[in-house]
Each structure stands twice: as structure tokens, then as C-alpha cells.
Fold:
Amino acid sequence: MKRQVSIKDVASEAGVSASTVSYVLNENPNVTISAETRERVLSAARDLNYVPNQAARTLGSSRVMGMTESKLIGIVIPQTEPEHYGARLMFSNPFYSTFLSAIELQIRRAGYHLIVSGTNPGQSYFEIVRSRALDGVIILGMYPSDDEEEYRSFNVPTVLVDCYGCDGRFFYGVNTDDRKGGYLATRYLLERGHQKIAFVTGQLKEHGVNSLRYRGYCDALDEFGVVLDPARVFSGYVGFDYGAEAAHKMAENINNVTAVFATSDITAIGVMNGFRAHGISVPDDVSLIGFDDIEYAKICYPPLTTIRQNIEEKGRRAAGLIIDAISDRQLPRVKEVIELELIERATVRSLA
Amino acid sequence: MKRQVSIKDVASEAGVSASTVSYVLNENPNVTISAETRERVLSAARDLNYVPNQAARTLGSSRVMGMTESKLIGIVIPQTEPEHYGARLMFSNPFYSTFLSAIELQIRRAGYHLIVSGTNPGQSYFEIVRSRALDGVIILGMYPSDDEEEYRSFNVPTVLVDCYGCDGRFFYGVNTDDRKGGYLATRYLLERGHQKIAFVTGQLKEHGVNSLRYRGYCDALDEFGVVLDPARVFSGYVGFDYGAEAAHKMAENINNVTAVFATSDITAIGVMNGFRAHGISVPDDVSLIGFDDIEYAKICYPPLTTIRQNIEEKGRRAAGLIIDAISDRQLPRVKEVIELELIERATVRSLA
DNA sequence: TACCTTTACTTTAACGTTAAAATAACAATC
DNA sequence: GATTGTTATTTTAACGTTAAAGTAAAGGTA
Structure:
């Protein structure tokens, strides 16, 4: 087991000092290096197969306050669903594979690496931000936490994805207009004569995606003068199984429902399957609309009418924002909004 | 912007030296600390809200050769599909969200963080292993690379998932018996009277999953005395779109096919959809069997008959292995095999 | 010629931590 | 009473890097 090749080895191979090597390798603009020396250093580094030690870099660069560079970006994916639902896995929803993949690609191209972390319930994720000296953080669907004050004091660029009502003077945001999405889906059903519209969703947390979609649902009902019936609102967790569970409950009193708006496609598909088990047909007996437009929305049978959010675009924007925010600490704290689009497929029938 | 709270701050608060703090916090078994001092240190650390700097830890621990601890595990997900197929995203297959999620959970519980990285084509991922001083690496479906020799010399515990024919004296492995899976799927079709069985897959790389499944396909054909027809073999990339593309090609000469074995569910579902577009019914006109048993296999219509591999289990095993291998460098280099199971659903019809 | 500037480096110290060696106090053994 | 051992701690140096200060030579200006 050989010792790591360090900058000193490169330096002595090239016949210069360690700093010179550092300056060459980092293309430090504050220092002039002759072309001839630069060449010698570069070829020595190549010959020795030198790879910089990032831990040392991180530490070394922390001398100037606030200038620490770990070249590490964290993405925090909270455990949003209660454990008693059996949701031990943090992000098994296929939404995440597309989202993460889009982020990872951009991040890597910009020379960063990506740390993916769930959250330990009750434990703060600040710790990872601090201990790893993360250059930036992307947080998914979670309001930062109780001690936001403290978090700010670290001054780490932070992009909140799908988080509402958070302070736009500190955080960057990437959102979809979920309230509008909820409204569009519900209006679409109302326009086709549906009034008994059930709403199936995950946890209704303040500032959460689901609450916004719920607000949109209420908006549309209001607009059409339909009174909201709490017996038609099912709030559990995001997932196929809960959709099926909700369908079973609805099946007991199916006359109370002519259409269902599920706030995620995976839940909607669960609803569809749950109904099928009771011999209830979508869309002949009950209409159904989802949210997200994951790949399976067009694959399932019948293909799901849904509100599309461009997940890949969402990932790209989040990554782009965090990269820009890291390199320009003065970057105005924007909130980017990803457009929504209603995709008509085959799960909604007009009652006319 | 305040300076980071360091171990020295804790030390002076507790009235001891920095090393003492380090010893207490790491519960270093080689050093005895009085209960009273331990208490003082711990409470000082709590009061100051101290979080250790991992970069410094990594660097500091690298004094003893081979003992560097970054508490970082890398997972490398290679770009397996050619860019011209439009596969810019590395791991948008929903397989990965379950797999990653299972790994992340285990890793975090053991006190590690997870770096997720794709690969830059042509560029070695050794660099990330070295520059980040990764404690362990999980590599997905890829033979380490040309300069395996060099990689070994770093002596980093490495688990290869879905990689065959690699040296078991150095690497740990987590595999499914893909050849057997390919055999089981094909035999199931043959037993039901099918002979014209198409095979739809991704890239057929040596030591790759797809090649093994192909071997199993060949095994079964041989056993039943059926001659392999290369015109029934479609090798493109793993994904819905390629499945549909293959279906279009098959539709041109549909009499040449009575059943299809697709080596991943997502591809199988693409085949199903492609056929549907041509008015070809699964299973009435053509039977279909997939591989993986992703969530959507049971959700799609008709539900897909497939070979199940327990993806979550696979992730858990890989994570468990890497954690054990890090803490015990002498751990025998095992290859764990995840059991396969044929799940009968509704996409295969008997020709009888 | 004396002074300033620029170019091209080198030297030094620091980042936060830990391993190893050193020390000091005390107890046990001969 | 000297030696050895144990316990509890401190001191020192090192990990690999970089920022900042320092130096030396060459070139330009008054």
C-alpha cells in the first residue's frame, strides 16, 4: 500500500515549490506563472498520476472565512411519510430517479459531487451541511426547520424545491404552481359535469405540495358553487398502496363519488387498481385524474389523464440555480416556477 | 458570518486540551478518560453546538497509512446507454429509486454519507474514489475498467452489483442469477408451447446482466431443441422507448413471433404499448414476459408476468456488505446471490 | 544612479483534526 | 526508597492544501 501522491511529490518532480503547483493546477488568476513552468508542472502531475486530495483542499480553503470549497452539493430528501405506513424507504417513488438523475448530471458537469441524504426523524440535517462543509444544498419539499435562524447563519446557498411560504430573502426556490395545478385538475372534472369529486393525497402539511393542491381543489369547487364534503377527502401518504386503500373506502359508498383527483400519479394508479378489484371501472363508473405525469401515466391502462410537471426540467433548474448561487453569492433570490400542463388521456368521462 | 466552532473552542470551554476532546468524542478505546472530564467535554460540546469538521477528520486520520476515514461511500452508476439513443439521464429507470433508497437508508444508519455519481464517458471514476478518499465503493453493472490493476492498489473495499466474471479475490459481489432468470423466463414460454420467442434487451456487453440473461435464453431454447433465430433478437437500450421500437419492428412480421421475453420490465411495457399501437393484443396475439418486477409490473394492464428480483433486498445486501467490508478489511470476498422468482400474472397465454 | 513596478516565483503559517510521544501524578511491587 | 506500572492528561507533529506575505531578478522611469 503506497502513500498517496501529494502536491509535494509533484513539486519536487517539477523542481518547483508546492504553492507553484497549486497555483498552476487551480489556474489561480492572482498569480502569474511562466508558460515553461506551467508545462513542467502539468507534465509532472500527469506522470505521477496526481489527484488532488479534496479533504485537504476543503480544509486549506477554509482559511478565508466563508470561502470554504468542498465541491460538494447535498440533496436532502425528507422522510415525509409516517413509518407506520411501512414507508421505510425514503424516495422509492420513481419521481426521484428522474429528478436525481437530472441533478446529478448537471452537478457533475460543473465539477461538483452529489451527496444524497434522507433525514433521520427528529435529527437535524444541519449537521451534514456543517460537517461536510457543503457548498450548497437542495432540499426537497420540506420547510427548512424550526431553527431556521441558525441555518441562515451558516449562509449556505439553499434551493428549496416544492416548498412554499418560505423566506424568499434567503432561499432560492423551484416550484410548480401546485395550487393552480389542483385548480386545473378539479375544474377539468367540474366542466365535465362532475360534482362528487374525491380528493386523495398524502400528508396535508402546511407549506407542503399537497396542501397547495388541496387549496386549488377548494378554489375550483368554490368557483362552481360545489360544497366541499370532508368525507370525500382522503389524506394518507403518497404511494400506490394508499391509493388502493382509499379506493376500497370509496367503494363502500360509491354513489358518493363520480370522479377522483389524486395528487400524484402513483396514488392515482393505486386508486385505479383498487377500483378494479371492486369491479368499478375507470372511467365508465368513476373518472380519475392524477398529478405529475410520471412515465407510467401514459403506460398504464387506461392511460391516465393528469397534470404534467416536467420533472427533468425541475431537476435541471434546481441544479442550475444552486451552481449559480454558489459562484455568485449576490445572485438575487429567485423563485422559479415550472409550468404545468393538463394532459388529456383516457380516464375522465363526461357526465352529460 | 461567524467562524466555525472548532475542537479548540470546546477544549478551552471544558478546560482541557484539544486531544482530550477528540478522545472523548471518538470514544477512543486506546485512551482512558475520567468520567468527570468526559462529562465536562460532552456538555461543552453540546453548549457550543459543536459539529466535527469531516474534512479535517479525513485529513487527520490519513496519517496512518490506509486508515483514512472519510465516512463517505460512493455509488457509481455508469452511463450504459449510448447518448444517441437520447439517454442523457443516467438512472431514470425507476429501478434505481428503490435501489438507491435502500442503500442510502442503511448507509446513513451506519454513520456514512452517500455520494451518487454517474460516469463521464471515457473518464475514470477512480478520480472520485481517490480525491474524496472514499471509504467504500458500490459499482453498478460495470466491470471496473481497463486499469483494474491500479484500482486494486488503492485497496478500497468495492462491491460490484450485477457484474459478472470479475475477480472474486478482490471484489465483493451482489448478483442475481441472471442466466437462470433468463432460462426460467424462456422455459416458461417454451412449456406453454411457444417456439418463436423474441428477445428484447439493452446492450449485450460481456460480463453484463443482459448477456447473462441472453445465455439463459439460449440454454432454454437448446434444451427444448429450438433453433435460435437472430432475427428475433433485439438489442438496443433499456427503456420504454426501445421496447416500443422493437415492437414496431416485430409487428412488420408478426407471424415470426408468438412470445417476447424482454430483459427488463420497463422494456416489456414498452413492447406491450408498441404492440397495442399496431392492434396486436397481449396476451391474445403475443405473449410477453419481463424481468425485475418493478412496481409497475403489477400495475400495468394487463399485469405483467415477470421474473422478480428483490431490488430492495439487493440494495440492502450491497450496503451491508460494503459497511462490513470497511470495518473488517479481512472480510472474505463473498458473492451474494439474490433469489429470483417467476411471478405469474396475465401476459402469457398457453398455445395448446 | 536611485527608485518603482512587474514578473515569477518561494516561504510561511494556517485550516481542524488525530496519532503518537511525552509527562505527571499516583499506586503497587520489590 | 528506588523501580515499575497504571491512569489521565498534555504536547507535538503531521495529514495535503492554499492564502498571504516575502524575495529576487528584470525592466521601466525620473
The CA atoms of residues 81 and 148 of chain B lie 22 Å apart.
